[in-house]
């Protein structure tokens, strides 16, 4: 219950409120890899950790040490810890362990990987709506018992002890099942003064849809029209640049140069979550369509102060130096060409990496 980092934690619903007051969508980074400080510096409001397996986290000190790391040096970006779980007590226990260090917890109901689904984790939970509801309610109840403010009411959103409980989902082929699923998750119960989940992230693809297939904007439109006034909804999927979203919403205009304007207007969407495009361009939410050298330097600086495995650093640098994911030719500008990126991947340690980038960046990289 104490605040071990002596830092201020902001309730995620407060961030939704701030974005709404600024007449814009909330900008969030998907549960991915470890560069939360970098994306936050460039306009991402709220970050997710990668999925952490609750059962292992609860039982194994090594899992706890490796799966959830935060910077103790500076202010932390508002962070949601995402769990994979299928037992209410496991999710509640793991959440209880992490909330002193995070703004909220999230349950992954979208991971399509076969290892996860065969253990009734991730997208397999889309067939278990009662279990998901039980997990969420058990977690709220545990956090409440621990002394956290989880009612979702205004006073708790403004409290330093306010924390959120949320879920991230995919859609079913038959959208009526998704509507039933969300209805179950929003139905009030005696344990909660408001709804069981504070907000919801929708990845509008089914468990079987490959990520190369565009998101189903029609599903998103139906789900946000049905539920978007009851609960803040984030879109995850195909957020490639801020000016190329495949729909319009009151808070953003899409491609003015587009020959055919998007078919859908999504009035009740509260925010955007990006994964692949943010990996390639951590500055996406500051409005830039491709990654500048400055962001590579910023990331390097952070990794020197809070080291992470070198392979992971290299992976991030490679992504940032690759073409961006936006649709137009100018979005596809890459800091390094294909051959240079192949050379980059042969670099063996941090010193070699800095020398390599020093040589490639016009004017060299800044002092760190
Ligand atoms: C490297 C990487 C790791 C991911 N890990 C997770 C994860 O741990 N949990 C999760 O819910 N989604 C995860 N995703 C999926 C994204 O959250 C997102 O739903 C999907 O990539 C579609 O969004 P995009 O078009 O912005 O990439 C991951 C995606 C990528 C690229």
The number of helices is 15
- Side by side, the strands of the main sheet go 1-2-4-5-6-7-8-9
Query: How many whole angstroms does the radius of gyration measure?
Result: 20 Å
CATH homologous superfamily heading of the largest domain: Aldolase class I
Give the fraction of residues assigned to helices: 25-40%
Tell me the total number of β-strands.
Answer: 9
- Biggest sheet overview: 8 strands, parallel, barrel
Report strand %: 5-15%
How would you portray this structure in words?
With 368 residues, the chain is of the alpha/beta class. It folds into 2 domains: 12-286, Alpha-Beta Barrel (TIM Barrel), CATH 3.20.20; 293-360, no CATH class. 37% of the residues lie in helices and 11% in strands. It contains 15 helices and 9 strands. Helix 5 (88-98) runs parallel beside helix 7 (129-145), helix 7 (129-145) runs parallel beside helix 9 (175-186) and helix 9 (175-186) packs parallel to helix 10 (217-227). The two termini are 37 Å apart. The mean pLDDT is 91. Residues 30-32, 50-51, 82, 108, 110-111, 168, 203, 211, 236-239, 274-277 line the site of flavin mononucleotide.
Question: What is this entry, summarized?
Answer:
The chain has 368 residues and is an alpha/beta fold. It is built from 15 helices and nine strands.
